[in-house]
Amino acid sequence: ALPLRFWVNLIKNPDFLFDIHKSNTVDSCLSVVAQAFMDSCGTSDLRLSKDSPSSKLIYAKDIPVYKELVAKYYSSIKSKKIPEDQMNAMLGEEFELHRRQYVPSEVNYLYWALYELYNYALEYNEPLTLALEKDQDSRKQKLAHKLNQVRYR
């Protein structure tokens, strides 16, 4: 599901990746292609009728071929077995790499998260305070005042 979301997002929104303008016509065409991609990766059978949208009917005869290609792709991935000890070693290395990269080993995760939140609150204190002052529930709880108390401690 994650690769599908990634690719559908890029297909429908090439402007996320490239510095381009996407016209309404191109947007409609890309939506049709993205829908065909989603239908190809889906596990349910495509049920079409005379009332089905034309965007689904365009690729209807190709979808079974694409579904087969997707099934073969995932089957080939599934058939590649990695020994458990090798997988554990690789995951351990990745964990250590990212743990050292983002969280110093001597700092507790909770304190690190609080530290990051504190830095964020310091950096964006003014817009946070304004937003808290505008919100009725936040005003009742005096959250803007409490935020400033934390800031000056």
Automatic annotation (TrEMBL):
Single GO term (MF): semaphorin receptor activity
Superkingdom: Eukaryota
Location of the Plexin cytoplasmic RasGAP domain: 1-126
Entry GO CC: plasma membrane; semaphorin receptor complex
Gene3D superfamilies documented for this protein: GTPase Activation - p120gap, domain 1
GO biological process: regulation of cell migration
Pfam families xrefs: Plexin_cytopl (PF08337)
InterPro entries in alphabetical order: Plexin, Plexin_cytoplasmic_RasGAP_dom, Rho_GTPase_activation_prot
The protein's name: Plexin-A4
Protein species of origin: Cacopsylla melanoneura
Upper lineage: Eukaryota, Metazoa, Ecdysozoa, Arthropoda, Hexapoda
